[in-house]
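Reopening this one. Same input as before:
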Amino acid sequence: MGTVLPQQLLAKKPRPRAITLERHSLDTSEAAGQLFRLDRRWGQAWCRLFRLAPEQHARFLLHLQVAGLLHDLGKANADFLARVQGQSKSAQMVRHEHLSALLLHLPGIRSWLSAQGRLDPDVLTGAVLSHHFKASSKAGDFMWCRQHRSGTVGLFFHHEEVQRVLLRVAEVARLNCPPTLAPSTWPDTSWERSYESARKAADVFRADLRKNAPRQRLLLATKAGLIAADTVASALVREELDIRHWIDDVVHKEPIGPEEISSKILRPRITQLSRKRPLKFHAFQDAAATLGSRALLLAACGTGKTIAA
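Same output, byte for byte:
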């Protein structure tokens, strides 16, 4: 597809209004910082959940905010833009988050992110690559940078919106000015070299995670946090709600206590279920009582996970 530089880059289909890639990147980073601010309950609970050491807390939040800025930059391509503008119904040649992660392995970008020692580029890559749960090191539809059809696609990483997002990364992480990116297309030899470098780095990273628990915890906390921040940013902007005000009103309100959980959630739900037939707990609900304080329940919506908890 062509490489004519568009006036603006889009992050979503323009309904009811256009949301630029720059705006969504900034929104996601803001949502990350507000959801998981370290002086409030959510941020503190998140760090406990992932067993982050106190000295990792600020580092986690930094990585999450930077990942929020970087996660969708792969949408800066002619293929994605044609789809969201309704000009094409073809499958994307390469998934946008795969390109976002690959961008982080351009030699200039990786050196820039690594320069001050504050950021772990592999943690950022892992979070960015997997935020749609569609990434794999193995062959298949979700193999990293698998090309889904023939041809080439123009990349717009040299667009001023992308450059401004990278400048914001520099501000947040106290880095030097980011490198200027040149016009390019996918695939070409320079991207192939970056991909080979990225795969080798991923193998080394995977091996290190097996013995480096603090790094593994930072990765998992950042990956899960990015999914939450991206969801909040996307939904609230669609609903034309202010991110900061909504998070303050909903997330940072006082926690409900055991009596309120019982009176406002469990008893009304049990009463509702009992209208049809006498309530009988599922086996997994009874079995939940045998679990420790840290457990994961996997069950379909409406089957009773809250009651089990």
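So the earlier flakiness isn't reproducible anymore. For the record, The chain has a mean pLDDT of 92.
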